[in-house]
Amino acid sequence: MTGMSPARRLQGVKSSPVRDLLALTQRPEVISFAGGLPAPELFDVDGWSDAFQKAAGHRPNLQYAPTEGDPVLRELLAQRMTARGIPTEPADLLVTTGSQQALTLVTTALVEPGDVVAVEEPTYLAALQCFQLAGARLVPIASDEHGAVPSSLADVLERERPSLVYLVPTFANPSGGTLTAARRQEIAALAAAHDVWLVEDDPYGELRYQGEPVPALTSYGEKVLYLGTLSKIGAPGLRIGWLRAPRELMPAAVIAKQAADLHTSTIDQAAAAVYLANVDMNAHVRGLCAAYRERRDTMVAALPATVPAGTTWSDPDGGMFVWLRLPGAVDTARLLKKALAHNVAFVPGAPFFATNPDRATFRLSFTTNTPDEISEGMRRLAATLA
Amino acid sequence: MTGMSPARRLQGVKSSPVRDLLALTQRPEVISFAGGLPAPELFDVDGWSDAFQKAAGHRPNLQYAPTEGDPVLRELLAQRMTARGIPTEPADLLVTTGSQQALTLVTTALVEPGDVVAVEEPTYLAALQCFQLAGARLVPIASDEHGAVPSSLADVLERERPSLVYLVPTFANPSGGTLTAARRQEIAALAAAHDVWLVEDDPYGELRYQGEPVPALTSYGEKVLYLGTLSKIGAPGLRIGWLRAPRELMPAAVIAKQAADLHTSTIDQAAAAVYLANVDMNAHVRGLCAAYRERRDTMVAALPATVPAGTTWSDPDGGMFVWLRLPGAVDTARLLKKALAHNVAFVPGAPFFATNPDRATFRLSFTTNTPDEISEGMRRLAATLA
């Protein structure tokens, strides 16, 4: 890729198909399982409105602010991570404009055009975009229902010498899978042995509906960069995320952040700090989990009557997504047009693959619709697949 | 620079000296002319607090949003640019997380490691950082009190074939200078003839205290990318900026923006839209100009009694900065320590130079302090220089 002009490289990076699709699926009569959006009716509008009024009414919050982030917010986020089993000091954290920015800053700091980045296949497509934009060569790690396969990672590390390994270890997008504790230990050890940075992208980790929590990958080793966000447990409109990184990497990340946008919105950071200080976030997350569990159960229970025999699907313990594979040589991108004629939408699976797309796969999101809407949407999907 | 690892390149890009200094100059007893901060006491706190309460109380503003930006905000910004003599449609604009992000997106889209970026010397140091981080080689364009010299630009275009030319044509940071209308025409024609992109970074354009307005560089040609911001006329804490670009470049900028942070804070954008719709921004800017004009006049009037004979300085028609050069072989970085002992601060000039620093230069900002504070600060500066 080195030597390819940025304009040409950008032409090669397609606009996110999810976003392009969202435009098509926003007709009000469509029940969309396509987006990766949290349920808006579960946003704590009163809590956030109060927090923003307080934040914007405090004069210093209208001014420029330190690149590293609001000191109070960093302290509260560090406490929250520590309470979740990842001992964290405020100085370990850089507040970012959503965790998407944290991923881009890590990429800026560690990936050169032509470098190799190793990813699960399938994986989060905006991460694929980010690495492609940096001119990286993507190499897949095999994965199954328990996440990335350590022996495949070992092989990739040996053969390809990646600069970075990107994983969504918990309730992955799009697969819904979660890396087992044993594999986390093995993968952290492999990274340490090969002196390579792992990225643990963890937007969904707190959204568990069944089964026992698994410790964060970050807690198994020193070579892990953790990306966190308030988008799924608070609200995505704020664009508040964070990078937790070893001190040695922080100066480079801070310089990349300065060049990116000087600092994240002073007001959004202050509002997040007010909110975290005043609201019982754990209780709010329990409420989200109760609602999302019912939606997940509704969708999964409807699947046998919805999809043709021979279809396989994930049974996610948390997060937002069910991942499916239809039998035979089906192209779900074609199927989407038929689905839209039935006023239901999903995301075809191909764009989530870094290398060899499996066109019979697709992703359903269960978070944005109510159980009744999910039931009706699944009836429409059944009619599409009939 | 190609082939240098990102980590090494980041080590080469120093953290912004202004920001490092700001940390040192925040003792309350220091009168600081160092920062580039708008006056916080002139922020319209009530207006912004109202706007944020309304914005955060509207449920859709807590959700993900289009990458291009809030449609209402883009419409209002387009109207505002059109009223300032730059005919603009909403589709010409991409909302960014401050204009710093607009600069980074343009760099991502157009600059490859090893490419040449041409800049005025001295110029905005976070722009220099941004280009260095992208692995660009910086080539200076000569400038005088009327901004960049067209014959020098012509020479650079011919000899160095830059990918990008970066200018702050109006009330430049740090020089305070403004490019004349005749030079704007000439420079826009040169860019068209050489098919090279000009960046017009315009954070200060509306802050004019004397003299007649000069049309934006953007109005003289098609090869100009305009960077705008609410930071200096509204409030920087919002991080609301924008890129105005020809339609051919917009898809690449949007993809770079998606990878950077998906979109700018939905709430901050909505609050900015509420504010622009409800408040007479032109009246607010007139108020800012009246206050800043008095501060500028106070500082410039005090200069002859403050600095040694042989010192030269700019007499800016607007913006935030006076730029000075002391006689003899002085290093203003050393002088700063002495100034801090007198409880006054400025920014040494060297970091604003891309290539050969003139260490006898320094920058004074007149916006952050009241006239009385400026008078006292200038007395302390006189004692420093005595």
List descriptors.
homodimer; 386 residues; alpha/beta; Aspartate Aminotransferase, domain 1; Aspartate Aminotransferase, domain 2; 2 domains; seven-stranded mixed β-sheet; four-stranded antiparallel β-sheet; 13 helices; 15 strands; 42% helix
Protein model, in words:
The structure is a homodimer of 386-residue chains. With 386 residues, the first copy, chain A, is of the alpha/beta class. Chain A has 2 domains: 6-43 and 282-385, Alpha-Beta Complex (Aspartate Aminotransferase, domain 1), CATH 3.90.1150; 46-279, Aspartate Aminotransferase, domain 2. In chain A, 42% of the residues lie in helices and 15% in strands. Chain A has helices at 6-12, 17-24, 45-56, 71-83, 98-110, 125-133, 150-160, 181-194, 250-261, 266-278, 281-306, 332-341, 371-385; strands at residues 31-32, 93-97, 116-120, 137-141, 143-144, 147-148, 164-167, 197-201, 224-229, 240-244, 312-313, 321-325, 344-345, 347-348, 361-365. In chain A, the strands form 4 sheets. In chain A, strands 2-10-9-8-7-3-4 form a 7-stranded mixed beta sheet, with helices on both faces. Chain A has a 4-stranded antiparallel beta sheet with strand order 11-12-15-14. In chain A, helix 3 packs across helix 10, helix 4 (71-83) packs across helix 10 (266-278) and helix 11 (281-306) runs parallel beside helix 13. The longest helix of chain A has 26 residues, at 281-306. Chain A is globular, with a radius of gyration of 21 Å. The interface between A and B is large, with 74 and 74 residues.
